[in-house]
Amino acid sequence: MANPSLLILPGDGIGPEVMAEVRKVIDWFGTRGLAFDVEEDLVGGAAYDAHATPLADATMEKAHGVDAVLLGAVGGPKYDVLDFSVKPERGLLRLRKEMDLYANLRPAQCFDALADFSSLKRDVVAGLDIMIVRELTSGVYFGEPRGIHTEGNERVGINTQRYTESEIARVARSAFELARKRANRVCSMEKANVMESGILWREVVQEVHDREYQDVELSHMYADAGAMQLTRWPKQFDVIVTDNLFGDLLSDLAAMLTGSLGMLPSASLGAPMANGRPKALYEPVHGSAPDIAGQGKANPIACILSFAMALRYSFDLGDEATRVEKAVEAVLADGLRTADLIGEEGRAPVTTQEMGDAIVARLAAG
Ligand code: IPM
Ligand code: MG
User: Fold this and answer.
1) Please, are residues 265 and 302 in contact by the beta-carbon 8 Å criterion?
2) N or C: which end of the chain has fewer CB within 10 A?
3) Is 282 one of the annotated active-site residues of the chain?
């Protein structure tokens, strides 16, 4: 059988350096009889510099052809002056849209060794394990009409929140399926009190539940109250399902509960391909962090854990994924910290490369 194939898009800022550490993990699996066919290409500002577009058509083609895409990060101040249509972020949004990656899984898990890094009290976050399922291909990110135009003597900026029933139903199913493998609870978040799209969202999620997932416990919450509850007592949640924009906000909030944005992976999944695997892109939740790029300060864990999610969700290699997660947990328990995790402990930080090496050494030690 052919090796599983990966397209790696390191992108901008700290993307390339955290991805270099992921390559070490991939190579380690290669030496253990689990080889991947890896191809690398450009996305974001790096692609713009080379091709004057944040995602070349040839790269888009490759993304369609592989089993999974692994992405670092996109964006940077250098590109702020670019026209909106060619900004680095458009490259990522094109991948999500054209691969139809509608279910964005963003787990927020608090590693025990890091419970004191949260801005919340230890007992509020210790043991936290929640999963945000963010709709990723529709809503206000893509709705039409959009743009800036002139009305009378002033400019007007317009974006449109738009959801179809089928778009809501399919992401709701993803959330219910995940919940069944976890604590079996889904909380759906919208603003049905002010938005028609929120009313429809709530109705459709409820219908899918009543028809297909009565065994799963479902609740609904307004997204603003959800933000409040996430900071008050996050452990009340198991799976949260929400739209593209609320999911963007709530997942950053949830990420910070765990102490550092440098820890959180994500998976963006679409419909199954001919080989039965879902279309998939894996990326850390953190951004390109241009202020620390190239200094060995970046935390590679989010990107390494994103590869672990690829093992689990694209390749059905749950044991291997767990092995990577355990290796990460072990190096944190050993006291290794990248610069983002230096708090009151007074430890000297390790570099991005040292963190990667330590994780591979732990993997090898079994
Ligand atoms: C994210 C990011 C992206 C988003 C940006 C980089 C386009 O914030 O993945 O959460 O807004 O979706
Ligand atoms: Mg975001």
Assistant:
1) yes
2) N
3) no
Q: Give me 271's structure tokens.
A: 């419909």
Would the CB of 133 count as within 6 Å of ligand 1? no
Measure the CA angle with vertex 136, ends 142 and 197; round to 5°. 65
* Residues 139-166 as b or e (16 or more Cβ within 10 Å = b): bbbbbeeeeeeeeeeeeeeeeebebeee
- Domains 1-104+265-366 and 129-257 in one fold: yes
User: pLDDT tens-digit profile of 225-264?
Assistant: 999 999 999 999 999 999 999 999 999 899 888 877 788 9
pTM for this one? 0.94
Burial tier of 232 (Cβ tally within 10 Å: 0-12, 13-18, 19+): exposed
Residue owning the nearest CA to atom 9 of ligand 1: 285
291 catalytic per annotation: no
Q: Is 92 in the pocket of ligand 1 (CB under 6 A)?
A: yes
pLDDT confidence tier of residue 345, bands split at 50, 70 and 90:
low
Domain at 129-257, CATH class: alpha beta
Ligand 1 binding pocket includes 283 (Cβ within 6 Å): no
CATH architecture of 1-104+265-366: 3-Layer(aba) Sandwich (3.40)
| % of the chain surpassing 70 pLDDT | 99
Nearest C-alpha neighbor of 285 from the set 313, 258, 312: 258
Residue-range domain boundaries for the chain: 1-104+265-366, 129-257
Q: What is the mean pLDDT of the chain?
A: 96
- Catalytic entry in 27, 100, 129, 252: 252
Name the β-bridge partners of 6.
Answer: 38, 68
Residue 181 falls in the annotated catalytic set: no
pLDDT digits (tens, 9 = 90+) for 78-130: 999 999 999 999 999 999 999 999 999 999 999 888 888 888 999 999 999 99
Give the number of whichever ligand sits closest to the CA of residue 94: 1
* 141: annotated active-site residue: yes
